[in-house]
Input
Amino acid sequence: MAVPGKGVHGPLAGVRVVELAGIGPGPFAAMLLADLGADVVRVDRPGGGGLAIDPAYDVTNRNKRSVVVDLKAADGAARVLDLVERADVLIEGYRPGVAERLGVGPEACHARNPRLVYGRMTGWGQEGPLAQSAGHDIAYIAITGTLGMIGNPDEPPAIPANLVGDYAGGSLYLVVGILAALHHARVHGAGQVVDAAIVDGAAHLSAMIHGMLAAGGWQDRRGANLLDGGCPFYGNYETADGGYMAVGSLEQQFYDEFIALLGLADVAPARKDLARWGELREAVAARFKERTRDEWTAVFEGSDACVAPVLSLREAPAHPHLAARGTFTDHGGITQPAPAPRFSATPTRVRTGPAQPGADTADVARDWDVPALNDDAAPNDGPEPNGASAPNEEEHH
Output
């Protein structure tokens, strides 16, 4: 089998993945598998996807290959099932029931390939009162309590981009589920369905917090706890130039070093005196306002005070530590995070840029032995088969 970037294999080299194109957590999960060396074939729909950027910049499609299949055409499902027969994993992010109506649901796929791991990525999950409702990251994390715990107490909850829901609660849990099911399939010879719901994953992420809540060590409100900004030695402070420093000096020895370097050792109230946390916060805030972010960065450089400058997306790649580790990489003129985590025996890298819709059809048809992919797609002038909904109604994301 020819694999893109042959010569540098990740730990998943030889694993074949079919990704039914979508946006959000599904593509990110497939990118992670591709970064780890899997041969990911993205099945794009005619006319492209829903992400409003040039596909050449969609980093979540790096290290993949793309074919175009019209799943609503008469032979669309058959073409996908030909790929499924040769695959180890399939990823789809439609609303519950849509893949079945399109002829590529779990039953149809497992009839062709009983060992297939069928990964389903949704916000609400495959069942429940909201399963058929549209939604996005912010709504999923809202009902799990995750959104409500982030931010200042006198302001609306802070929106953590789509990192907590889509990618942490969604993509990463889907990948964990796929890898676990893939192991099971290789041991027992049987595939299965992985139902990865963002609400489940986002809730699961808060396991430690729920334990603290039950033990009385966490208050069920924003900005009142050790890790949510309520603690004066775990938070962000503005500097003289409008920048910010992030402080995380939780343990006593780190706190002592922090206070000493800040120059407040003789005036700061005791860290354990919760009644004076407000006074401590004001003293720390006032001191940080006396110097610029870069000046404070120099003060804390090399210390164990657990203090770091808050960098922007464009600044981060140049940070000396990240630059030394190669945490970011440049490929095709795009600065982007390098694959993670790292492996001693099977290193990973960005092998190819974002897959362009349909650009790899001939190669995939040859490598996967699916010659029908090279045939011209049948026109889709008639009614949608099996009452399938329009593309913008199929997906949660």
Summary: The CA atoms of residues 156 and 370 lie 52 Å apart.
